[in-house]
Amino acid sequence: MMHVDRKTRYRQMRVILNEKQWRQFLALEALERKNIQEVAQDAGASKNTIRRGLEEMKEDNLSTSGARQRKKGAGRKKKESQDENLLADLESLLDPKGDPMSLVRWTTKSMAHLKQALQVMGHHVGESTIRRMLQTLGYSLRSNKKNIEGVSHPDRDAQFAHIKGQCHLFEARGDPIISVDCKKKELIGDFKNQGREWQERGKDTVVNVYDFVSLADGKAIPYGVYDLVHNRGFVNVGIDHDTAAFAVESIRRWWQQSGKALYRGSTHLLITADGGGSNGGRNRLWKKQLQELANQEQLTITVAHYPPATSKWNKIEHRLFSFISINWRAKPLTSLEVVLELLSHTSTKEGLTVTAMKDSNVYPTGLKVSDEELAALHLIHDAFHGEWNYTIRPQPSPS
After folding, report:
1. Could you say which of 144, 247, 259, 318 is the most buried, measured as most Cβ atoms within 10 Å of its Cβ?
2. Which of 182, 175, 164, 384 is nearest to 300 (CA)?
3. Per-residue pLDDT for 101 more than 60?
4. Alpha carbon distance 388, 272 (integer Å)
């Protein structure tokens, strides 16, 4: 039989027994060896622990299943019970009142700052105690939540219903429906791209520390066109400025590259877009450029803008742009060719395909459209929020 020394046996028994059983086991050992000091030293326990076990055995207070292991009220007292003002002072720091120069009002509510503020108030407390007290008060660690886009328009839901009705009408007729928007501009070069990807250990992708424009080899401006009917994306990647002319040129290229073939014979197009930016409802140049497209392709173009503070509902955001971001996560966009390659290889299990092309045109900013030019457009405003909903018909060709 394998011999086990006392210290090893004590270590094994300490894992098996609860506190009360452990005290009484050591008490039996002390009675057998007639030496509390030696048992305490071998077991790594306090002599007081063994004495308590001896007292429990004398009182016939033996360990039973489900019984208390400690006396009622035993254990370290909570800090807030010893310091009656501690909890109230902590709450005042979390929601400062009165003194505008409160220590925490102008700082983050981190453990270190809260501890420092409490010490200034005369409390000696550790971060673990503050953390426990915060949880008791119902606080938890939270990050900022993106959910505020602006004031909601009272006709927001009605506009959504209008857009839905227009989409049903165009789909029933077999006419194209596209969602358009410009994605965030990207710097070309060895810059960090958000996200992570699996790589062989020891082979990290190293990029610039700073995202300075002066370090870039240019910029990529991806303007997207998403075909809601065929689940296809088209991205026109510009290198100059995001203007209304660039936006409409992107739509023109989509129509000439794929739309015209997919919707052969169709003379009507529905565009859903955000209410601001290069394709905004108040952008005169946007309307003028759409008129030129309508004349060139003999298309009747209907536009429905999403109401203010609802850009995240634009279909292109979560049906195209989100998958582009996933596809090129953690990949530095080192050249325009890399951007085009990554865009073109974006796909989903639902069958999304993406076509990308480079746009080297120059799009000057600051172009103005006069009242006379605007009045000359073949622009028909809808009866319901004509600033959001309108149709541009081809103008008669001059005789």
Report:
1. 247
2. 175
3. no
4. 10
**What residues have CB less than 8 Å from 220, skipping those under 6 apart?**
185, 186, 188, 237, 238, 239, 333, 336, 339
Residue 59 CB: number of other CB atoms within 10 A?
8
DSSP 258: I
Could you give the CA distance from residue 286 to residue 230 in angstroms, rounded to a whole number? 25
The alpha carbon dihedral of 39, 45, 48, 49 has a sign of negative
Q: Under a CB-based contact definition with an 8 Å cutoff, are residues 335 and 214 in contact? A: no
Dist. CA 395–CA 170, nearest whole Å: 22
pLDDT of residue 75: 56
Strand, coil or helix: 351: coil
Q: Are strands 268-273 and 232-238 parallel, antiparallel or unpaired?
A: unpaired
Q: In angstroms, rounded to a whole number, what is the distance separating the alpha carbons of residues 104 and 108?
A: 7
**What CA–CA distance (Å, rounded) separates 29 from 50?**
9
274-283 pLDDT, tens digit per residue, is: 999 999 999 9
> What is the pTM for the complete model shown?
0.67
Give the pLDDT confidence of 120-135 residue by residue, as tens digits.
Answer: 988 988 888 888 888 8
Q: What is the predicted pLDDT for the residue at 105?
A: 45
- Grade residue 307 by pLDDT with cuts at 50, 70 and 90: very high
Q: Could you tell me the maximum CA-CA distance found in the chain, to the nearest angstrom?
A: 123
Number of Cβ within a 10 Å radius of residue 110 = 11
